[in-house]
Amino acid sequence: MSTSLIYRNATVYELLIRALYGRYYPDRYRAVEGLVPVGASVVDLCCGPATLYTRYLRQKSVDYTGLDRNKRFVTTLIKAGGQGKVWNLTSDAPLPEADYVVMQASLYHFLPQATPVLDRMLSAARKQVIIAEPVRNMSSSNNRVLAAIGQRFTNAGDGAQAHRFTETTLDEFFRPYVARVVRQELIAGGREKLYVLNANS
After folding, report:
1. Could you count the other beta carbons within 10 Å of the beta carbon of residue 201?
2. What is the DSSP string of 65-120?
3. Each residue of 14-38: b (16+ CB within 10 Å) or e?
4. Does residue 90 contact residue 108 with C-beta atoms inside 8 Å?
5. Alpha-carbon distance 34 to 172, whole Å?
6. DSSP-derived secondary structure letter, 16
7. How far is residue 93's CA from residue 73's CA, in Å, rounded to a whole number?
8. What is the pTM of this model?
9. What domains can you pick out in the chain, each with its CATH number?
């Protein structure tokens, strides 16, 4: 299945993300970067062109592995000096282990069955799982044209995604994991919500 234009080119992807987040664009990465200590191991799921690594984590000498189903993005990451693997998260294969397992703005791709993905993240993390997920979305706009664009431009290779989280539904999603949640807060001007969960013991 073909992907949306933004998933075919790292530059186009970054330009769109910058346009959507405006002045809050760096904040979404800094919020995650600040949670990862120097020298930690990180697995980044649905890593895209690995901006989190190339601009924020590489300087902290982390042991970084990015997973994405998009071979172009993985190739971009490897050329930048990181470790990358082509990976389909809809499979039930165990994830590589790391101190921190991260996902930014991608959990909605697995709705309505995102729970198995989070469970595999918790099993792979030695310390914490970090998830930052959009809760204000163009695809849920009352403007039908904007909503259609938002849905069509989010096909990472498995079809356009009509489902999105709101802050309320994201909080509901994490409610069964409340005993593991050590931090939750709105970031990037309220566009995303950050959740940090302690790993399985």
Report:
1. 4
2. EEEES-HHHHHHHHHTT-EEEE--TTS-PPPPPEEEEEEES-GGGGTT--HHHHHH
3. eeebeebbeeebeebbebbbebbee
4. no
5. 26
6. H
7. 21
8. 0.83
9. 5-198 (3.40.50.150)
- The two tokens of residue 90 are 């809809």
Strands 98-104 and 41-45: parallel
The 3 state secondary structure assigned to 125-137 is EEEEEEEEEECCC
Q: Which two tokens stand for residue 31?
A: 């919020």
pLDDT (tens digit, 0 to 9) for every residue of the chain, 201 residues total? Answer: 445 545 556 666 677 777 777 888 889 999 999 999 999 999 999 999 899 999 999 999 999 999 999 999 999 999 999 999 999 999 889 999 999 999 999 999 999 999 999 999 999 999 999 999 999 865 554 545 444 545 555 544 454 455 789 999 999 999 999 999 999 999 999 999 999 999 975
Mode of pairing for the β-strands spanning 125-134 and 192-198: antiparallel
